[in-house]
Amino acid sequence: MKRFSVIILLIIIIPSAYLSGQISTRQAGMRFGYRSGIFYQVSHEAGSAEVAYNGLLSFNNSGLQFTGLRIVYETSLDDISHNLFFAWGYGGHIGFIYSDHVKFMGEEYYYSHERFSPLIGIDGWAAFEYRLSDIPLNVSLNFKPFIELTIPSFVRVIPFDVGLSVSYAF
To answer: Pick the residue with more confidence: 133 or 143?
Structure first.
């Protein structure tokens, strides 16, 4: 029965990977900022806006964080350039760090050794993205503030995570 379920699941999933009800675009690239990392993004038209789902894998403090974002590109800034877009969004992240100290409210707390600290948080997103028309390349100046809870019981607020993203669109 288990083998039969797997076969049915594969019969459904494999053909659906090639079918699409909407035209979507994908991007893969790197983000440079406080939370630097690699990302993959899928976007599609939704009414008068373009909606994207972004997954960012970042490495920080000998740890790993995964951030998922929902990004809305409402309009292009045609007055400045036809290829310049403003985007906003929200999401969350989960991960862990290894650290021998924690900064909280301007104070530093030290441990006797490095310790594993899981974390969870919420993120905001605002960006100006320029899409090059001659080559499939996008450049984005983005702002990603976040609040996270690190176990053991520290809350970190980073209001100014400004980054630069470069991605290949396909």
So the answer is: 143
